[in-house]
What does this fold into?
Amino acid sequence: MVSSDDGCTALSIECRQDAPIPLDVSISTLAGELLALIGPSGSGKTTVLRSVAGLYKPRHGRISVGGESWLDTDKNIDMSPQQRRVGLVFQDYALFPHLSAVDNVALAMLDADKVTRQRRAEELLARVHLNGLAHRRPSQLSGGERQRVALARALARDPKVLLLDEPFSAVDRMTREPLKQELASLHRALDIPIVLVTHDIEEAQALADRICVLNNGNVMQSGAPDDLRLRPRTVGVARLMGQDNIAAAEVLDATHIRCGSHILEVGSVGDHKAGAKVTVLFPADCISISDVGAELASLTNYLHGRIVEIVATGDFKTLLMDFDGLALRLKVTAREAAQRNLAVDAKIAVALDPEGVHLMRAE
Amino acid sequence: MDWQAFSLTLQLAAWTVLLLLPCAMLIARALAWGRVPMKSGIEALIMLPLVLPPTVLGFYLLVAFSPQSAIGGTIKSIFGSAPVFSFTGILIASLIVNLPFAVQPIQRAFEGIPRNVREAAFVSGLSPWQTMRHIELPLAWPGIVSAIALTFAHTLGEFGVILLIGGSIPGETRVLSIAIYDRVQAFDIAGAGVMSAALLGFSLLSIAIVHTLARRRGTGAHGFQ
It folds into this structure.
């Protein structure tokens, strides 16, 4: 039902200004791609979203969708929100409180005749699994149901881009998971760019094809979720991506670093010269618990230490381990923890895959 | 019962509501959402009739509208007569006196509409007029009804300002409240009593009608279509 005219509808955003909110952002996405804008509050992510919708005008900017220019401050192009055809799901949904669910959706299709918009509104509500609740007012709906109405309303105009502003922040955890799954399947069905603003990294990782990290109105890094997780450009990005295994180190040669008392082999030291102070990241992907005994302790990249703490979170246990001053965290399944008899104060050995160890500029 | 005064009172109240409502809605909307320079100063000016003694306001209007004054003289040269001791005069006075009663409730109602609800309407393709019609007016409706009720009821009982600028000319400026005063002055307590009761009943009725209207619109299951 919702489709663009061609398969290459893409969104490109450029915003630049010094005040009142500093912005220096240049992002683009492909059709059918879900872009997550992530960053702390005040990082400018919602402002970027509002700029795309036409609700905010940056001092200098260019926004185009599928080759159509929506904003170009150099050429004095500034299309109104009405002209832009965006679907926007507001953080608190901003439903029309005096209208039923079906009328909330139908109102977004005023240019169609009454019969058509009524039928399409009902189709859209069915699409977000709200059949039977069409005649309820927003105040008679749960948070999750309101979000679905907002989504149906956003899709009503056959938008050229779908914008989601923290769409899960107003619903409880129980409701969040099914809504996320529905968004994921909607994303597969739509061939328009989707922009998701969030501060929840798990949400971004679960849904996005591309993540753009914003801070103070600047793009810190932009790329595939795994790119950001495994190869963050800065410690800030690494922390934002939920990475804890970060330590200070010194580059020894093209393939070795010293980290505390350990000499570790790494796949590459990149541009860092010998003797340079760096910050090293050990993503969970490069850490494996090893059965190698203490007699092989001298093997490169095998670390021997003990478990300091175990934190249980549902089906998983997070191990906090100490390797002669180097603290590492690792999440294992509860089953693996039981099979390996992992317990606080027990000895443990891990192997670090050199290719996975990532170096960043020292803080 | 002075039916002429009764009909004149209704006419005055109706015209006041009819003329004041569109102005009040524009002013209220601008004060609620617009970037109005000297906003608090304008708000204070609109509130002034609430605290100013009606006779003082009436006195200034009388001075301003008299044929000898600049304003009154100009009006006389255009329309042939100055708006003192005439229905037009008491209507203008009534509009000014009722400004706070009309603007305040509507302004509060507009302020109660979240900004992002209007933005959602824009993003949904609704033009500013369509947003006004489908979103703002229905949501501000209780405030608008309050404004109508307050203005109407308040005009029914207006006395001081009307007496000063209009006097007591039968069929022209003698509204019910002034007719009551005249009867009391003439020791016709029974006549004053009948008219007072009529005014009381009518005030209650008008309040009841608009309250019912406001409630029905506020909770009814009407769609926009």
In short: The mean pLDDT of chain B is 89. The radius of gyration of chain B is 20 Å. Residues 149 and 207 of chain B are 6 Å apart (CA to CA). Chain B is about 80% helix and 0% strand.
